[in-house]
Every structure is written in C-alpha cells, then in structure tokens.
From TrEMBL, chains A, B:
PROSITE patterns with a match to the protein in the record: RECR, TOPRIM
Record's protein name: Recombination protein RecR
Domain Toprim, residue spans: 79-174
Gene designation per UniProt: recR
SMART domains per UniProt: TOPRIM
Gene3D superfamilies reported for this sequence: 3.30.60.80, 3.40.1360.10, 6.10.250.240, RecR Domain 1
NCBIfam families: recR (TIGR00615)
Zinc fingers (C4-type) by residue: 56-71
Annotated HAMAP family: RecR (MF_00017)
Chain's role: May play a role in DNA repair. It seems to be involved in an RecBC-independent recombinational process of DNA repair. It may act with RecF and RecO.
GO MF: DNA binding; zinc ion binding
Example of a GO biological process term: DNA recombination
Amino acid sequence: MASPEIETLTQALSRLPGLGPRSARRAVLHLLKKRESALDPLLRALEAVSERLATCSICGNVDTSDPCAVCADPRRDTRQLCVVEEVADLWALERSRLFPGKFHVLGGKLSALDGVRPEDLAIDSLVTRIAAGGVDEVVLAMNATLEGQTTAHYIAERLEGYPVRLTQLAHGLPVGGELDYLDEGTLAQALRARRPVA
Amino acid sequence: MASPEIETLTQALSRLPGLGPRSARRAVLHLLKKRESALDPLLRALEAVSERLATCSICGNVDTSDPCAVCADPRRDTRQLCVVEEVADLWALERSRLFPGKFHVLGGKLSALDGVRPEDLAIDSLVTRIAAGGVDEVVLAMNATLEGQTTAHYIAERLEGYPVRLTQLAHGLPVGGELDYLDEGTLAQALRARRPVA
C-alpha cells in the first residue's frame, strides 16, 4: 500500500537491532508526521556521521575522526591499556568515566563454534602496541563468558615476556544483586574472591 | 565520549517511538559498524522519502505523492469511504487489504481533555466530500475508545440529511480472545450483538 520509498525506509529501519517490522512502521509514521522535528534532524545527523565515519587506526574504535577522540586526547594515561571485545564495550566503559587510560578493540572474541581465530581479531596489533613500550598495565576487560575468558587467556599467553602487568575485571555480585537470584557461577566467584571487611 | 555527530544521531534516533537512549545507542553502533549494509541504505531511504513526502490533499494520508496512492488508484470503489482517526489506522486497514473503498483521515479525535475541537479535525473537508456526492456508504472506523466513539457520534450528526449509509466496525471478541481475559465492556458488546448460529 505505502509507496516504494516508504516501504524501503520501513525495511531499513526494521533491520536495526531492537526494532521489528511493527515498531519500524510506527517509527516511520512518526517521521512522516513530524517532518521538521524528527525526519529532517535524523537525516542531517546520518549525513554528518556518514561523511566523517572512520575506524580508529590505533585502537579500532569507530568515531568521526581517525585517530578517535580517546586516542587523540592528550590527558589520557598512556601507561594503562584496556582491551575490550567490541566497540560497544569501549563505549560502556567510557560512559562510566572510570578508566583514565587508552583502549584496544579486538573486534570480537575467539570462538571455535563461529570459526573466529586469533588472526581474525586485532591481537597482532595489540602485541605490536605493547612491544612498542610505554604501557605498564593491560586490563583484559573481556565479557565474563566462556569465549570472553578464553580470549583473555589467549591474549595473556601472547603477552608473556613483555614487561606489563596483566589485570582483569573483578567478578562477583553486581551492585543491587540479591544472592537468591544469582547464578551459581557468580556466587562461586564472589565467594572465592571474598575480601576482609574493612 | 562519542563525537558530537554521533551524539546527535543517537539523540535523533532515541526520539523515535519504541527506542530509548539505550536501544538508540545499540542502533547507532550497528549503523557505524555496518556502513554499507545499514547506514547508507537508511540514509538513502530517508533522503528519498524526505524529497517527496506529501500529505494527500484529498484524504489526509501521508505518502510520497499527492494525491496518495490510494486516492490515485482507479480500481478503488469510490462509493465506499472509510473515516479513520490517524494515518496509522489507514495503514492498518490497508495491510488487511479488506476494504475496497477510499479513506478519510481526521488527524485525531475529539477530546475535551486535550482541547481538540471539531474544527481541529478534518471534519469540514469530510462533509464537503460527502456533499459532492458519489459516496453511498461511510464507515466510521474510529477506535473503540470513549473519545473515538464520541467523534463517531459527532460525525454521524454532521452527516445527517446526506443520502449516505453510515456504518461502524463491529465490536466483540477479538480473534483468539478468551472470555476469561476480556474486559466487561467487550463482553457486554459481544453479548448484545450476538448472532444466530449459522
């Protein structure tokens, strides 16, 4: 029924994560009805990003400049390097504003099932960055999944012999977590890593 | 952290219905990582729609042409006219492909609370269409809400004296509906409108 242009827009939107055909249609209707306040701003924002989109040649972050804003920031502590699986993880850590150092994005995790091998990830470039010196600590901030931890172990092996301290994120109870609802794996980790009461 | 361009895009997306800040961020990451398959197609689709977007001067539908595809379709039965509150309702009926006639979009419903008066809706233009003749039946396809039904009553009054048959959508059990879970209003309507078993 809708014109081919509107159909195409609905399909493009419905392929975004979190939007299905139904919500894409609602979004399109919203865009069509609010041309000045919704459609045009979205169009201009997409144009601006599309024009400048770049993958950072140092860390693998996606940004509108290369090097990215994090790598180009002179206030960052270059002695600390945080290794993450995906750009989304880098963004999540940046939102917390807790890590003062720089990042390295692997672009995925080792996975026998999905056929992801070490050479498919940005591991060689990580080793090159470490070999160049100047980094004291490497934080392996992989996801707390089997594949994430396998990836962390592999990277730890590859970085053996380099004068860097390897650390990983603590495992345990999430803030607000109730024992009754936690899985046994998390409980076991929290118990094993228990600390003296200050 | 993210560049201003990416921030602006995230905000533009998060204002779409069904997307919050979190899902907008996920969508932006998806767009940035899949430039060829996601960002560029969405950009081109928005451009195409933005260039041609028009509100149909006959029925009030939004489309990429004026008159819209429904009004311009010569196979449509011009003797049947379906009046709906919103463009979304027109699209919902079109998806079912059950109504062979034409449409009229009011652009809302009468509401004392929200201060929506008859002159705020496309009611005068509806009367003009009916007065021009050629329409046998007007289907008042308002929502089954208090305001929708008030709007339907008002339109029925305005169309008194014109030689058209006024009808409304049937009320009753939705397909797959279980009595136990239905509200009393729907049950009452279904009982009142009961029909002999064929």
